[in-house]
Amino acid sequence: MGAKRERADAARNRAKILTAAGEIVAARGVEALAMADVATAAGVGVGTLYRRFGDRSGLAYALIDEREREFQAAFIEGPPPLGPGAPGLTRIRAFLHALVDRTTAQLDLLVMAETATPLARFGAAYDLYHSHLTMLIAQVDPDADAFCLADALLAPLAAPLLAHRLRAGEVTADRIKSALDGLLAGFKA
């Protein structure tokens, strides 16, 4: 049985809500993302927002969802080197570099989403990233502890840590990519 289809009016409301929320974030930043303001701008009741998204972090996840789906499609079925067809180490590097770019592009929304609850970061997307890296690491070095190494490679890309380091001027996205490349140099190829 397929996924339940969204009613047409619910789909229109969702689109209006996400458009309004996106405009608020673009104009005033993530800190201005208030449920009541989004509801007013979208022309829906605030209860509709809470029923649909739960809270601000749920709304933040909805705003990042499209870009996340595009990113996942790229590394699951897109062209190499990010997608299948390239050697494992090349794919790991491409994945990590793309994840740095993906995270920095929506950094404030990801910080909000990842800090909503103590374990908010560790949801479906993280688990997929982890599984993907675990598989690739095991291809590159079957003797490695691929499971733990995947976490080690993902750790510096936690949105709150990345935001902290970038805003303090301690690192740039290019420096993070270079450091990740240095870690990958230690893998048996």
From TrEMBL:
Protein known as = DNA-binding transcriptional regulator, AcrR family
Species classification: Bacteria, Bacillati, Actinomycetota, Actinomycetes, Streptosporangiales
| Span of domain HTH tetR-type | 11-71
Q: Molecular function (GO) terms listed?
A: DNA-binding transcription factor activity; transcription cis-regulatory region binding
| DNA-binding annotation, residue ranges on this chain | 34-53
Query: Cross-referenced Pfam families, in alphabetical order?
Result: TetR_N
Keywords assigned by UniProt, alphabetized:
DNA-binding
PROSITE patterns, per database record: HTH_TETR_2
Superkingdom, natural source: Bacteria
